[in-house]
Amino acid sequence: MNELKGACIIGQSGGPTSVINASAYGVIDTALKSGAITQVLGAEHGIKGVLNDRLFDMGLEDPEELRLMKYTPSSALGSCRYKIADPAKDDTDYKRILEVFKKHNVRYFFYNGGNDSMDTCNKINTYMQSVGYECRVMGVPKTIDNDLFGTDHCPGFGSAAKYIATSCMEVSKDATVYDTPQITVIEIMGRHAGWLAGAAALATAAGAGPDLVYLPETDFSMDRFFDDVAKIWSSKNKVLIAVSEGIHYADGTFVSEAKTSATDGFGHAQLGGLAVRLAEELKNRFNTKVRGIELSLLQRCGAHLASATDLAEAELAGRAAVEAAVAGKTDCMVAFRCERSGGRYSCQTKLLSLSEVANYEKKVPMDWINPAHNGVTQDFIDYALPLIQGEPERIVENSLPRYAKLKKELAK
Amino acid sequence: MNELKGACIIGQSGGPTSVINASAYGVIDTALKSGAITQVLGAEHGIKGVLNDRLFDMGLEDPEELRLMKYTPSSALGSCRYKIADPAKDDTDYKRILEVFKKHNVRYFFYNGGNDSMDTCNKINTYMQSVGYECRVMGVPKTIDNDLFGTDHCPGFGSAAKYIATSCMEVSKDATVYDTPQITVIEIMGRHAGWLAGAAALATAAGAGPDLVYLPETDFSMDRFFDDVAKIWSSKNKVLIAVSEGIHYADGTFVSEAKTSATDGFGHAQLGGLAVRLAEELKNRFNTKVRGIELSLLQRCGAHLASATDLAEAELAGRAAVEAAVAGKTDCMVAFRCERSGGRYSCQTKLLSLSEVANYEKKVPMDWINPAHNGVTQDFIDYALPLIQGEPERIVENSLPRYAKLKKELAK
Question: What is the pTM of this model?
Answer without folding.
Answer: 0.96
